[in-house]
Design brief:
- By secondary structure, the protein is mainly α.
- It has a single domain, classed as Farnesyl Diphosphate Synthase (Orthogonal Bundle), CATH 1.10.600.
- Helices cover 70% and strands 0% of the residues.
- The chain has 14 helices and no strands.
- It starts with 5 loop residues before the first helix and ends with a helix.
């Protein structure tokens, strides 16, 4: 796929518009990989948006990617077009894409998350798989170490998303925290009443970050970018703590200036 195609432009624009933290980290990727990562992100983001927005073609587009995963002749969609192209240059793991599709189907069905095991499974499906595909694209000499770490880092970021977006998700009728945990720690996600839940969930996310960051040094390429993404995303947890563990409604937002500082410090992790 030519680097000047409209699809590349769409992928770059989508990443910069809707994933500002990830976009900052992508600037640290080797030039030869950067556009392919943008394209990969467009696959995941497009499917996720179709599901979140309740678009009627969501199930059909998921099925097309599943066909690609199964080695069948997949219908020509934006996602399969990109995946066929990426597979010419990278060892894209079909099993990971298949598991991602299972996460999308979970969202389509509106299935509940009752236990922490349910949440872990969901976080693996919708984000751990993304980390795994990225690790395959970036390469590693020690996949037994790097691949589980990449999964853990993706899951950590998804748990961070869940905590950042508690109020937004509730407003859309969605719940991604384990119902058992919410009941055990007070039963309320109302601002000012959810500190025990947030403390518990932050600790779980931090443990995943520790596992995930331990594998960054095993990557052949893009270590600085992945380290920057990890430290910037993890800072959202610190921002939630600074703001009183959800004492007020709304998203915890890390200022861009602090993100840039953290991205620079991420080089320590990369080494």
């Amino acid at each position: 796929m030519s680097k000047s195609t409209p699809l590349i432009a769409e992928a770059r624009g989508t990443t910069r518009r809707v994933a500002r933290t990830f976009s900052l980290a992508c600037r640290l990727l080797p030039k030869g990989l950067r556009d392919d990562v943008y394209l990969l992100y467009l696959v995941f983001r497009t499917l996720d948006d179709l599901v979140d927005e309740g678009q009627p073609e969501a199930a059909e587009r998921i099925a097309a990617v599943e066909a690609w995963c199964n080695g069948a002749v997949a219908p020509a969609t934006l996602e399969t077009t990109i995946l066929y192209d990426l597979r010419r240059r990278h060892p894209i793991p079909a099993d990971a894409l298949r598991d991602f599709c299972a996460g999308m189907r979970h969202d389509l069905a509106g299935a509940p998350l009752d236990t922490e095991d349910d949440v872990d499974r969901y976080c693996y499906q919708v984000a751990g798989t993304v980390g795994l595909v990225m690790a395959h694209m970036l390469g590693t000499d020690d996949p037994e170490t790097a691949h589980p770490a990449a999964v853990a880092l993706g899951m950590a970021m998804q748990r961070t998303n869940i905590l950042r977006d508690v109020d937004e998700d509730a407003g859309n009728g969605r719940a991604y925290l384990a119902a058992d945990t919410v009941r055990r720690l007070g039963g309320s996600l109302a601002p000012g009443a959810r500190e025990p839940i947030m403390r518990d969930q932050i600790a779980r996310a931090d443990a995943l970050y520790e596992r995930g960051c331990a594998g960054i040094g095993q990557l052949r390429h893009g270590r600085r970018a992945i380290a920057a993404a990890a430290v910037m995303y993890r800072e959202i947890l610190r921002q939630i703590e600074r703001e009183g563990y959800g004492a007020s409604p709304g998203r915890a937002v890390v200022p861009r200036s602090r993100k840039l500082l953290l991205a620079a410090r991420g080089g320590v992790l990369a080494r």
